[in-house]
Amino acid sequence: MARRIKILTLMIVSGVGAVALVSGQATPQAQALVAQAQSITASEKRQGAEVHPKLLEEFGGAYQVAQTPYVVQVGKGIAVQSGLGNARDDFTVTLLNSPVNNAFAIPGGYVYVTRQLMALMNDEAELAGVLGHEVGHVAARHSEKRQRASQRNSIIGLLGQIGAAVLLGDGAAGALGQQVFGTGTQLLTLKYSRRQEEEADDLGVRYLSSAGYDPRALSSMLASLAGQQAIDSRAQGSDARSVPEWASTHPDPARRVSRAATLAARFSGTQRNRDVFLSRLDGLLYGDDPKQGMVQGREFLHPDLGLKFAVPQGYAMQNGTSSVSITGQSSQAQFSMAAYSGDLTRYVDQAFRAVGGNQQLNYGQIQRTTVNGLPAAFATARVTSNRQTVDVTIFAYSFANNRAYHFTAVTPAGQSGVFTPMYQSVRRLSGTEAAGIRPRRVRVVTVARGDSVQSLAARMAYDDLKVERFVALNGLTANAALAPGQKVKIVTY
After folding, report:
1. What is the mean pLDDT of the chain?
2. Same structural domain, 161 and 274
3. Crossing angle of helices 142-153/194-210, nearest 10°?
4. Which residues does the UniProt record annotate as the domain LysM (predicted)?
5. Are both 119 and 157 inside the same structural domain?
6. 346 vs 153, which has greater pLDDT?
7. Is 388 exposed, middle or buried (0-12, 13-18, 19+ CB in 10 A)?
8. Which residues does 347 contact at the CB level (< 8 Å), separation at least 6?
9. What residue numbers bound the domain in which 454 lies?
10. Would you place residue 55 in the very low, low, confident or very high pLDDT band (cuts 50, 70, 90)?
């Protein structure tokens, strides 16, 4: 969560796309898709250019570091394989400063990969395979097709004209919660059909081969992702981070591993560029950026803003540039900020107006209180939308230097108290606590004689699942034999 925060109410589409191949040849349907995708239209470019800055704000911004030109170079090189007009110039490739394993594309040739997903890769071919998969979505116009389907099935409700993407939960608050605030990645990405995902994998393999890369790279990347997904699922019991990784919008990586490997056997190519990739990867930020706040267990801590809070047991957090989203089975919340004049009552009223849009929400009386020495104010509105009755709560806090922050929460009617412990947990971060927050980084190390998976995993900057994390990070197995001189990745402070 950056220093300036706002609730985003936008819908874009993203994903991965390609054409189905049989025995190394495209099916008639796949050939038709490619034939239709020979150029990026002016309309698509305008649409992408409009959404691009909003997406950057939501996903941590463009990550301008030493690795950035390398990612752009690889991405534009693989985009050329699509045959989309002047692809090297028409495609915009962005490395995002996001701690989420994700990659996606939007119309107009905009392709994105997060630094977190890049850290999971082990060579340049895997990077090219992921970016090629996304280029395939652009080439096959999957975004436009899913957007049309979403618009036909969207929930247009009381709290704004936000197109529905992925609902935030199966409970009564799910649909309304989607309209109020979304949850970062889940709001900004749409799930594609299995057929479209397979088309995307096929195109990614095809592009890899035509560029001279080992076509098996997409399969090995998917295998690493499946392993990381399993670790994230296990860690959720102790870490309140949600798992909106690449697998969320590009589902079932485990099943896709064997399919992509089978397809790759029909194509040629050997280039992996492992040493070059690892040399460029060394030093990459891993996990949360302290400048945007850190998720540690069930706590969110922001050293620059000087605050912290804790979410209830069983709830997950996703830290974005503009807000922190909190999700559970039937309730959701978002922590953000807005302009503050010094009047906390007015601040709460303005927050309700921002949520309601053109609809006035009847929240009754705004109550004042103090939370851990912080002046606070809150109110709850009972709202009926889509035949569901929910409570919408705004709980705001006044900090020093004329700053204020607030939770926007949506819960089933009568259950707003589920977030009371969270509201009461907000407090100032001490100087000692702020100083103790350190970023993690990927370090590439050389295996020495006597090193093992277990000994190197012990150096990982985590308290749990050290071996499992090391294995997934390096695309290995737990009983893998490491050779002296071999390069591997670890995560350190």
Report:
1. 80
2. yes
3. 170
4. 443-490
5. yes
6. 346
7. middle
8. 338, 340, 341, 377, 396, 404, 406
9. 440-492
10. confident
End of a domain among 285, 300, 318?
Answer: 285
At 97, list the tokens: 């400063």
451 in the same domain as 387: no
Same domain, 186 and 81: yes
Backbone region of residue 283 per phi and psi (left: phi > 0; alpha: psi in -120 to 50; beta: other values): left
- Tens of pLDDT, residues 158-175: 222 221 221 122 333 334
Residue 9 lies in a domain: no
Asked if residue 166 and residue 83 are part of one domain, the reply reads: yes
Contact 221, 130 (CB under 8 A): yes
What 3-state DSSP class applies to 152? helix
How far is 314 from 298, CA to CA, in rounded Å? 9
Give domain status of residue 473, yes or no.
yes
Q: Report whether 82 contacts 16 (CB < 8 A).
A: no
Asked whether residue 5 carries a pLDDT value surpassing 80, the answer given is no
Residue 146: what pLDDT?
A: 58
Q: Give the CATH number for residue 414.
A: 3.40.1000.10
pLDDT at position 36 = 53
- How many percent of the chain have pLDDT more than 90? 46
350, HSE (Cβ side, Cα atoms, 13 Å): 17
Environment class of residue 479 by beta-carbon count within 10 Å: exposed (0-12), middle (13-18) or buried (19+)? exposed
The reply to whether 303 falls in a domain is yes
Q: Across the strands, what pairs with 428?
A: 307
Last residue of a domain, one of 285, 308, 338: 285
Cα within 13 Å of Cα(353), Cβ side: 7
Q: Which of 8, 349, 305 is nearest to 179 (CA)?
A: 8
Distance in angstroms (rounded) separating the CA atoms of residues 223 and 218: 9
Whether pLDDT at 17 is above 50: no
Q: Are residues 231 and 356 in the same domain?
A: no
Q: Order of strands across the sheet with 285-286?
A: 285-286, 440-446, 487-492
Please, which residues have CB within 8 angstroms of residue 183's CB and are 6 or more apart in sequence? 168, 242, 244, 318, 325, 327, 332, 334
**Do residues 330 and 236 share a domain?**
no
The β-bridge partners of 308 are: 301, 427
b/e sequence 228-264, b meaning 16+ C-beta within 10 Å: bbebbeebeeebbbbbbbbbbbbeebeebbebbbebb
Q: What is the DSSP letter of 163?
A: P
317 found inside a domain? yes
Taking the complete model, does pTM exceed 0.90, yes or no?
no
Do 184 and 330 fall into the same domain?
A: no
Letter string b/e over residues 194-204, b meaning 16 or more CB atoms within 10 A of that residue's CB: eebbbbbbbbb
| Pairwise CA distance, residues 395 & 406, whole Å | 5
